[in-house]
Design brief:
single chain, alpha+beta, eight-stranded antiparallel β-sheet, three-stranded antiparallel β-sheet, 28% helix, globular
Length: 373
């Protein structure tokens, strides 16, 4: 913690933000919404920006954490503090620790970027005094003339420990997840500033059976919770995706283009959408490939790349959402098997992606243990 070793016993439910403030008296980390939305509690965990109000302290065992107090002698933070003062980027000061921590990440990771990009990167941090003009000007001043730092840029990619091998509760498939950068997956589409993740989903059907569904968009899209196609013409389609994450609910409408290679049993899709209610926008790309399994079954390798802006931007970095993506993959696999076998789907078509059921399943997978465990 800020360069010093900290050893403590905590309750499993203790959030990192509460541990920082209550146990270590590091009150520079502020608590606002306590739902991972406002960004006031942002800290750096192993080089990545993270919401401490939705991070369990016990999950940080062995991690290197830096709070706003740990940046006292950091030269970039020194420049930002001075710029925040000169540009009148301080009002009540409640959002300032999170803003400064995020701003430092922006400057080091991206260097000199346009104002529109700065605003986009800051969109996951809320200033309740609405003093964004001064904040953006301060970040713009410090980032001017600087070049992107490759090591800092890699921190944008979500990293996660590999699955321990225990299946998620009630899931028909098991996934092994690894993090990749968008630059590593050009075929999945280039999305500047996007986050990528790869999922490998085991499906109890032959590769031919699985590909027959995956190559038929009208049949495969209903397997994805919250997704539906409104029009499909050749390689172009229009559709909707419903999302429910904590207090935020959105319904995205957008267009996408899709391609298929039957010989390789491989497909890809890129698209954009916007939610008229919240004003959030999303860019996404996907690439999927069917691979022969070891026991007559199949493995579907899926690479997803996405970028959210607006009210949903804070979920680009939230670790909980990464777990929801994994659970979503398990639900998709179950629905895919049900479609192939003609059984009832595991999830009701049209149910919001990331809804309470998925969130609850993630919580159960993290904390529920059977007696024999």
């Amino acid at each position: 913690m800020n360069g010093e070793k900290v050893v403590a016993e905590v309750e499993p439910r203790t959030q990192l933000a509460d541990f920082l403030r209550g146990d270590l008296h590091l009150t520079g980390t502020h608590l606002g919404c306590e739902q991972g939305v406002c960004g006031a509690c942002t800290v750096m965990v192993d080089g990545k920006m993270q919401r401490s109000c939705i991070t369990f302290a016990s999950d940080c065992e062995g991690a290197e954490i830096t709070t706003i107090e740990g940046f006292d002698d950091d030269p970039t933070m020194g420049e930002l503090r001075e710029a925040f003062s000169e540009c009148h980027a301080l009002q009540c000061g409640f959002c300032t620790p999170g803003m400064l921590t995020t701003a430092r990440d922006i400057v080091l990771r991206l260097g000199d970027i346009p104002e529109t990009r700065i605003r986009e990167e800051l969109s996951g941090n809320i200033c309740r005094c609405t003093g964004y003009v001064g904040i953006v000007e301060a970040v713009k001043r410090v980032s001017a003339g600087k070049t992107a730092n490759a090591s800092a840029a890699s921190a944008r990619v979500i990293s996660r420990k590999l699955d321990s091998g225990r299946p998620l509760p009630d899931a028909k498939s098991r996934q092994v997840t690894k993090s990749v950068s968008a630059a590593d997956t050009p075929a999945a589409g280039q999305i500047e500033g996007g986050v990528s993740i790869e999922e490998r989903i085991r499906v109890g059907a032959t590769p031919a059976q699985v590909w027959a569904i995956l190559s038929d968009l009208q049949r495969v899209v209903p397997c994805v919770p919250g997704a539906e196609i409104t029009t499909l013409e050749g390689e172009n389609l229009a559709g909707k995706v419903k999302i429910a994450l904590g207090p935020i609910k959105a319904s995205f409408s957008g267009q996408a283009s899709v391609g298929m290679d039957d010989g390789k049993r491989e497909g890809w899709m890129t698209g954009k959408g916007r939610d008229s209610g919240l004003g959030s926008s999303a860019e996404g790309a996907a690439r999927w490939k069917v691979i022969d399994g070891a026991n007559g079954d199949s493995i579907v390798a899926v690479t997803l790349t996405w970028k959210l802006s607006g009210a949903l931007a804070q979920f680009n970095r939230a670790g909980l959402v990464q777990d929801i993506v994994r659970r979503l993959a398990a639900t998709f696999a179950a629905n895919l098997e049900a479609t192939i076998t003609g059984a009832a789907p595991a999830a009701k078509p049209g149910a919001a992606l990331g809804g309470f059921g998925l969130v609850w399943a993630v919580i159960k997978s993290k904390f529920w243990r059977s007696p024999k465990d």
